């Protein structure tokens, strides 16, 4: 199987990731923060290490501002539901995933908040001046999908953060498709949601919410934290405020290894994935009957290449490729707004990971060619 579905979850992972997961399962008896015995302390050290690596990647002042989550959706829900209040207005880009839109639209439909979708320019870029002009005294949050999981286009997040900050509006960055390859710290977002299981190369069931200075969302879940147990009230300090219940220690151990791998090789991974995606685009765009949905090549992209084959439903095309041994994803990719903007009712998406090769990209282009002839 040629795996080209890394935007859904990355595969394979570095061998150190599986080893760390198995190491916890086999060797660590103890619940971090819940006891003072050897196993619990060893687990606590693994969690601290993972927090430190994530804080380093996100440019945070303290590892305590790293919150372990179930996935990127969980991190986004925590940030959105924990921050917004009745009467707030939220600005979003046209490229948001349902992980952002569904929590927002639930509040919007209940009349609690107002959601405004900002239009991009003709290339699919949201301009900072569009954001500046849209901000009103009621704007409580701007949410930006750093790179679309359909077009792969990277938005000018740093400039958008600056535009927001000039008017006192915090920025929540959805880094689902950029964490692991892009420089996240330099964006200076106020909250950053990341999956652990995509570009950070950790196990499924892991995610991170990174909180900048002054950000203190209300908890979605309350319960035991192993700290301040004499109190019947949820602790207010981070990370305990937002981390109730037993952590996914095997997952976090794997994520620490994924993060460590990524921090050592990030620039090289990014360059490699961008080059492979560019090669795939070039091959696909030469095939008559193939339409690419990637936007202009000179703009920055992650390793996501979406396309359609003339006269063929994207689901059917993806099924045929999957049966031919090439794992890709068809349909709407949980991002209907960006498909509406593209004017598509679905697409085939190939997404590159650090362990793909030129031969994988070429095999996909050949398979598409043979489906057309
Ligand atoms: C842009 C974007 N945001 C959020 C998510 C949700 O991530 P997760 O599957 O980790 O919940 C995805 C997943 O594909 C995504 O592409």
What does the overall shape look like?
globular
Structural class: alpha/beta
Q: What's the architecture of the largest domain, going by CATH?
A: 3-Layer(aba) Sandwich
What's the end-to-end separation, in Å?
23 Å
What is the CA-based Rg, rounded? Answer: 21 Å
Give the helix tally.
Answer: 10
CATH superfamily of the largest domain: Type I PLP-dependent aspartate aminotransferase-like (Major domain)
What's the order of the H and E elements? EHHEHEHEHEHEEEHEEHEHEH
Low-confidence parts: none
Number of strands: 12
Describe the 3D structure.
With 373 residues, the chain is α/β, with parallel strands linked by helices. The chain has 2 domains: 115 residues, Aspartate Aminotransferase, domain 1, CATH 3.90.1150.10; 247 residues, Aspartate Aminotransferase, domain 2. Helix content is 39%, strand content 13%. It has a 7-stranded mixed sheet with strand order 2-8-7-6-5-3-4, with helices on both faces. The protein has a 3-stranded antiparallel sheet with strand order 9-10-12. Strand 5, helix 6 and strand 6 form a beta-alpha-beta unit. The longest helix has 37 residues. The radius of gyration is 21 Å and the shape is globular. The model has no long low-confidence stretch (mean pLDDT 97). Bound molecules: pyridoxal-5'-phosphate. The site of pyridoxal-5'-phosphate has 14 residues, from helix 3.
